[in-house]
Amino acid sequence: MAKILHGVTVQTDILNRLKPRVQKLKRPPGLAVILVGHDPASEIYVRSKIKACAEVGMFSEKISPPETVTTEELVAMVEGLNARQDIDGILVQMPLPKHVDTRRVLETVAVDKDADGFHPVNVGYLVAGRPAPKACTPAGIIELLKLYKIPMAGANAVVVGRSDIVGKPMALMLLHENATVTIAHSRTKGLAEVCRRADILVAAIGKPAFVTADFIAPGATVVDVGINRVTDAAEAARLGRGEEFASKGRAIVGDVHPLDVERVAGAYTPVPGGVGPLTIAMLMANTVELAELHQSVASA
Ligand code: NDP
């Protein structure tokens, strides 16, 4: 039976390491979260982020403009936060409404307040291997692999998915850990065979249970980034989530087949309880680092 890599354990470890750093600061690190509209999933994510801030001793502020907010208004909000001394990190919760120019809003966030690590300048620092806020989900995965002592140096790592927020930064971070990295995507030929070469397989696709037993080398470490809602009872039952469906009317599954991974992998992250908590922990870590930077600059 494969070993389960628990995200909550890693989250607790990361948050516990942050607490003494927060206590050393002259004022609590401040995170501002902009949440547009009332998307239920985004509201849940933001609530857990704000809860984590309180746990670490950080100050947080939620700004909730209506769905009708314009690009100009959002840009003005971000500029206001950029100018505030008590705010160290700014997070704009995705997705933004279709009429908003997402790129413009994200690029307005000051490079040294970019709690999500999405600003192109910080992406450039990541490519160059220089310290800067890093995309939270892949950075958390690296912490998880380190904490569970999964060897990365020399390992064959395959990342399925090439988004700017998960796949690409994940591949770069694994490369910095000296893995031999392959990035696969929707145009990759012979995907299952490519994946079977992986000692570490990261799935960030957005398709429920897409990665099945034939993608996984026996004993491999499988990291499942996907969060997908299954709304068909028969499908949920087929994936071993019949009980969850019966009680909640839906099941949450990752991009990896939950029964197959348990049978074939050496270790894996479950969904839920795997990658999700890591993303939140690294958001806190980025904000604390930015606060340390701001306060050392202020006292210099
Ligand atoms: P995107 O939709 O931006 O990217 C999906 C990637 O998967 C693309 O690169 C796409 O390839 C690739 N892909 C799609 N279909 C296939 C296929 N059939 N074969 C191979 N590759 C395929 O998604 P994100 O990266 O933003 O998110 C991925 C998943 O992770 C989602 O389920 C999301 O909800 C979840 N997520 C979870 C987080 C967490 O904290 N746990 C945080 C962020 C995301 P191509 O580029 O060729 O189209």
Mean pLDDT: 96
Strand elements, count:
11
The main sheet orders its strands as: 1-11-8-7-5-6
CATH superfamily of the largest domain: NAD(P)-binding Rossmann-like Domain
The helix content is 40-55%
Could you name the ranges where pLDDT drops below 50 across 5 or more consecutive residues?
A: none
For the record, the CATH class of the largest domain is Alpha Beta
Find the CATH topology of the largest domain.
Answer: Rossmann fold
Task: Report the CATH architecture of the largest domain.
Answer: 3-Layer(aba) Sandwich
- The tally of structural domains comes to 2
Rg estimate, integer Å = 19 Å
Order of helices and strands: EHEHEHEHHHEHEHEEEHHEHEH
Descriptive notes:
This protein has 300 residues and is α/β, with parallel strands linked by helices. It folds into two domains: 25-110, Leucine Dehydrogenase, chain A, domain 1 (Rossmann fold, 3-Layer(aba) Sandwich), CATH 3.40.50.10860; 136-276, Rossmann fold (3-Layer(aba) Sandwich). 45% of the residues lie in helices and 14% in strands. The chain contains twelve helices and eleven strands. The chain has helices at residues 7-24, 40-56, 71-83, 102-108, 120-128, 136-147, 167-176, 191-196, 233-238, 242-248, 258-264, 276-299; strands spanning 3-4, 30-34, 59-63, 89-92, 156-160, 180-184, 200-203, 221-224, 228-230, 251-253, 267-268. The strands form three sheets. A six-stranded parallel beta sheet has the order 1-11-8-7-5-6. β2, α2 (40-56) and β3 form a beta-alpha-beta unit. α1 (7-24) runs parallel beside α12, α2 (40-56) crosses α12 and α3 runs parallel beside α4 (102-108). The termini are far apart. The model has no long low-confidence stretch (mean pLDDT 96). The site of NADPH dihydro-nicotinamide-adenine-dinucleotide phosphate (NDP) has 25 residues, from α12.
